[in-house]
Design goal:
Helix content: 25-40%
Number of domains: 2
Largest sheet: 12 strands, mixed
Structural class: alpha/beta
CATH architecture of the largest domain: 3-Layer(aba) Sandwich
Number of strands: 12
Oligomer: single chain
Order of helices and strands: EHEHEHEHEHHEEHHEHEHEHEEH
Number of helices: 12
Radius of gyration: 20 Å
Strand content: 15-25%
CATH class of the largest domain: Alpha Beta
Strand order of the largest sheet: 3-4-2-1-5-12-11-6-7-10-8-9
CATH topology of the largest domain: Isopropylmalate Dehydrogenase
Length: 342
Amino acid sequence: MSEPTRPLSRPLALSQGDPAGIGPDIAIAAWLQRSTADITPFIYLGDPDILMQRAAQLGVAVKIEAASPEEAIGVFGRAIPVLPVAAGTVIAAGLPDSASAGGTIEAIRRAVEETVAGRTAALVTCPIAKSVLYQAGFRFPGHTEYLADLASEHLGQSVTPVMMIASPHLRTVPVTIHIPLADVSRQLTTELIMETCRIAARDLQTRFGIAEPRLAVSGLNPHAGENGALGKEDDAIVRPAIEGLRLEGINAFGPLPADTMFHAAARATYDVAICMYHDQALIPAKTLAFDDGVNVTLGLPFIRTSPDHGTAFGIAGTGKAKPDSLIAALRMAAAMAAAKEL
């Protein structure tokens, strides 16, 4: 997707993620590159004290200024605008603490609230540590499911989220996400595949400007089941989904052997790869674009992107964290929001 041709009228909302991870590091690094990397103004939702402490630990000079979303664009040139959300405890870089879970969750909730209300143009989230949140009673498998629940509350109706990993090299969508591999074949259904593909096709049209998206659908089993010799699911579940989608006018094709879908010539034949489980989609995506891949949540009533990496506690506060994926997420969110404002 091309970069926005004009500035946004509203800032992006950037939630802090786990404050002990690299979220503060990469937010600071992205702001420091605001001119050279053409960063759209954002407002940081998180703990300003932690942000300032991290900047000192990293040895960089930044200014931090409390601001409202309406003030953020004016502030962004001179300081990181922050909508304060207390972490709830003292945090050291690299040492996660479940006592901060409430602040992490609240930052996400507030960022969604600001975006749904139209005060921010899109939501970008820094990485969370699900295990830390689980210790505090978090009941969702991850960011994606929590965002869908918040969206459902605002809309008053159910929302189906779809994860897409995007880079200039590849877009991939896993049909099943954060579940054990042993459960995939039990949870995979023809309707689930069809609904995932419908959402992907619709959002590629409306948010990425692809008039007629081409969806390459992988098989579940090696060699897409080898005509039933290596599993029945591809013929019994995947193929009927593709046939149904084509009857609806969606350009889906497959099921394809996953091991031949991701070389350069194959990638040129589709706009998104629909894969049956998490690693089938994310291994090729992260191999091709480990530093600058973007996690996009499709199916939501607002724009959400995120860096395609984790909290990296081991390098938090060391200066080793690269902001490339966050910068890509900010730029993609801005491009999607600019297209929406036209």
